[in-house]
Amino acid sequence: MTNEQTVEKPKPLKRGMLDNVLEQFNSAADKIDLNPNVRKILSITNTEIIIHFPVRMDNGEVEVFTGYRVQHNNALGPYKGGLRYHPTVDIDAARALAMWMTWKTSLAGLPYGGAKGGIQIDPSIYSKGELERITRRFTYALGENIGPEHDIPAPDVNTNDQTMAWIADTYMSTKSTSERSKNQHVVTGKPVGSGGLEGRDRATGYGVYLTIKFWSEKNNETLKGKKFIVQGFGNVGYWAAHFLENEGALLVGVQDAFGSVQNQKGITVEDLFNYGKANNGSIVGFPEASAMEGKDFFALDCDICIPAALGNQITKDNARSIKASLIAEGANGPTDVEGEKILIERGITIIPDIMCNSGGVIGSYFEWLQNRNGELWQMDEILEKLEKKLRTTFKKVTAYSEENNIDMRTAAFSIAIARIEKAYILRGIFP
Ligand code: GLU
């Protein structure tokens, strides 16, 4: 018997979201011949905050959590971007997501920069009371690192209007009585009735749907009868599916954190939503569809694929099996650079995240303006304004991509980066 030793081969390093966003940035920067000094500035984040903070749990014990806020750039205005509660939140994820926010707000023509943050936590294992204390303690620890004219958080993965209400209340509690109400716009995505914007809940999903609609109109196609699949059935996935279904498109597959279901004859969006609500937020076991292997999800037969969950979902491992001819990126960074190369080779169109899911931050901007000006806007007016803004961006991006014979992502990045470059060139770099 030989004395064999099993030597594990070193695993190739997994490309992270930060590698992806930097590669996307550099390829657009090359295309527009970005000023080298501005490239240096934008290649790195302005400020990175890591906070370890203690919170008392329901059982009386204290747990220490790690929270992040990364502020990438504020050349165009205050930092803006969500807070996510997820085990994958770390400094590199926050950096990457903050950079995407900078490009997203710039592309949308908003007076904002980009930031992102969150807590490395699986929120499903904590009680509502614990989540409230965690959120409030994190807000308190962030202190003046956030602020209505400085850095304005919003919901993201696993955070919602309730989370934002806790943040607003905690932040405002630290102000003197007369200053309190002036600080309501320290976060956006608050509940309607507590400074929130009518329709902010659906703004991201509505925007995803709109960009798909614009694309099909541009190609003289109709959404009626088109089959689509959605990864992630949270706020973004659900609302995008809702509006697509209204337009006559057919939902044929859904994947969430717990499992995947499919039905080529169609899944009724509202039924699935109600089932999920009654089933601890999971779609598993939905009776109108059959369960399927998660790894085969993206290979489902369909016309449109909407990744609306986490980053790095479409990669070289599954890009070849995708059947959809259109990918609409509801999530941030769902397609990695290698996966994208394959999709482009195969002639599959990608509506890039920084345009596709920008309805959310545009809605946030409206909420911020509403609070700042002491106004209350109506739903119709809001959705109309959102559509107008997105249509303008869509036209710009498609025109730029055609004129320069480049994909929509590179076009979107180029427009976004050029706007920031202009701001730096006009005002100069101190000292
Ligand atoms: N979390 C959303 C995003 O990734 C919204 C950000 C915001 O409204 O500030 O775009």
Walk me through what this model shows.
The protein contains 14 helices and twelve strands. It has 431 residues and is α/β, with parallel strands linked by helices. It has a seven-stranded mixed sheet with strand order 9-8-7-6-10-11-12, sandwiched between helices. It has a five-stranded mixed sheet with strand order 1-2-4-3-5. Helix 10 (337-345) links the parallel strand 11 (326-328) and strand 12. Helix 1 packs parallel to helix 3 (91-107), helix 1 (17-31) packs across helix 14 (408-427) and helix 7 packs across helix 8. It is 43% helix and 16% strand. The site of glutamic acid has 12 residues, from strand 3 and helix 12.
The unique ligands bound to this protein are: glutamic acid
Distance between the termini: 73 Å
* Name of the CATH homologous superfamily of the domain at 203-356: NAD(P)-binding Rossmann-like Domain
Largest sheet: 7 strands, mixed
Query: What class do helices, strands and sheet pairing give?
Result: alpha/beta
- CATH architecture of the domain at 203-356, please? 3-Layer(aba) Sandwich
Helix content estimate: 40-55%
Residue share in β-strands: 15-25%
- Unreliable segments of 5+ consecutive residues: 1-8
CATH class of the domain at 203-356: Alpha Beta
Radius of gyration: 22 Å
Based on Cα principal axes, name the global outline: globular
**Count of DSSP strands:** 12
Protein name: Glutamate dehydrogenase
Site (Important for catalysis): 156
InterPro entries: Aminoacid_DH-like_N_sf, Glu/Leu/Phe/Val/Trp_DH, Glu/Leu/Phe/Val/Trp_DH_C, Glu/Leu/Phe/Val/Trp_DH_dimer, Glu/Leu/Phe/Val_DH_AS, Glu_DH, NAD(P)-bd_dom_sf, NAD_bind_Glu_DH
Binding site for NAD(+): 204, 235
